[in-house]
Automatic annotation (TrEMBL):
<dbReference type="Pfam" id="PF13855">
    <property type="entry name" value="LRR_8"/>
</dbReference>
<protein>
    <recommendedName>
        <fullName>Leucine-rich repeat-containing protein 57</fullName>
    </recommendedName>
</protein>
<keyword id="KW-0433">Leucine-rich repeat</keyword>
<dbReference type="InterPro" id="IPR032675">
    <property type="entry name" value="LRR_dom_sf"/>
</dbReference>
<dbReference type="Pfam" id="PF00560">
    <property type="entry name" value="LRR_1"/>
</dbReference>
<keyword id="KW-0677">Repeat</keyword>
<dbReference type="InterPro" id="IPR003591">
    <property type="entry name" value="Leu-rich_rpt_typical-subtyp"/>
</dbReference>
<dbReference type="GO" id="GO:0005737">
    <property type="term" value="C:cytoplasm"/>
</dbReference>
<dbReference type="InterPro" id="IPR050216">
    <property type="entry name" value="LRR_domain-containing"/>
</dbReference>
<dbReference type="InterPro" id="IPR001611">
    <property type="entry name" value="Leu-rich_rpt"/>
</dbReference>
């Protein structure tokens, strides 16, 4: 991509606060963006070949949305965690194995998509994020859901297409969790905590494609309580 084209993009971004450059085969984060650290509210560099995010990412002080789907990121810099205004972070289809230690400092974060990475566990840092609404961890290599999940503030947690065979009973204590997606995992019915049905806020539990028949779910204690929540929610949205 020529310099003049990039220059035009930068000029537009300066006026609009949006920098979008997708599917251009970029191998690195455009350095020229550092001129716009105080302008940009949105950066979208999806469908490129970026392997590293430079530390300068931490300088985009008003950034609200960062979209880097389908790149080649294997790690994220700690500096990313300085983005106090960041509300949306999409990192689907990369090679991430973990999140930076300070990730819980992204205090404004509402939507986090990490589908199609190489995470092996639900990152504990997510529990520090108080405004989180939607977390997508589908298509990773997660095998169990740890006790710390009880602190998670999310409204929707998507764990579809992982390798989950164990779930902590603490998941029933998530204060705001309404939607839990666990389709296509390795769950036996006996490993699904019954408290999810009998004693949680969850009103949509998606568990198709595990190691049990869905109709067996209906025989579990607490299923009727779950159905009451499910039906009440359906009416609300109908």
């Amino acid at each position: 991509m020529g310099n003049s084209a990039l220059k035009a993009h930068l000029e537009t971004a300066q006026k609009t606060g949006v920098f979008q450059l997708t599917g251009k085969g970029l191998t690195e984060f455009p350095e020229d963006l550092q001129k716009l650290t105080s302008n940009l509210r949105t950066i979208d560099l999806s469908n490129n070949k970026i392997e590293l995010l430079p530390p300068l990412i931490g300088k985009f002080s008003i950034l609200k949305s960062l979209v880097l789907n389908n790149n080649k990121l294997t790690a994220l810099p700690e500096e990313l965690c300085k983005l106090k205004k960041l509300e949306t972070l999409h990192l689907n289809g990369n090679h991430l194995r973990q999140l930076p230690a300070a990730f819980g400092q992204l205090s404004a974060l509402k939507t986090l998509s990490l589908s199609g990475n190489q995470l092996r566990t639900v990152p504990t840092q997510l529990c520090a994020l108080r405004h989180l609404d939607v977390v997508d961890l589908s298509k990773n290599q997660i095998q169990n859901v740890p006790d710390t999940v009880g602190e998670l503030q999310a409204i929707e947690l998507n764990l579809n297409q992982n390798q989950i065979s164990q779930i902590s009973v603490q998941i029933s204590h998530c204060p705001r969790l309404k939607v839990l997606r666990l389709e296509e995992n390795c769950l036996e019915l006996s490993m699904l905590p019954q408290s999810i049905l009998s004693d949680s806020q969850i009103s949509l539990l998606a568990v198709e494609g595990n190691l049990f028949e869905i109709k067996k779910l209906r025989e579990l204690e607490g299923y009727d309580k779950y159905m009451e929540r499910f039906t009440a929610t359906k009416k609300k949205f109908a």
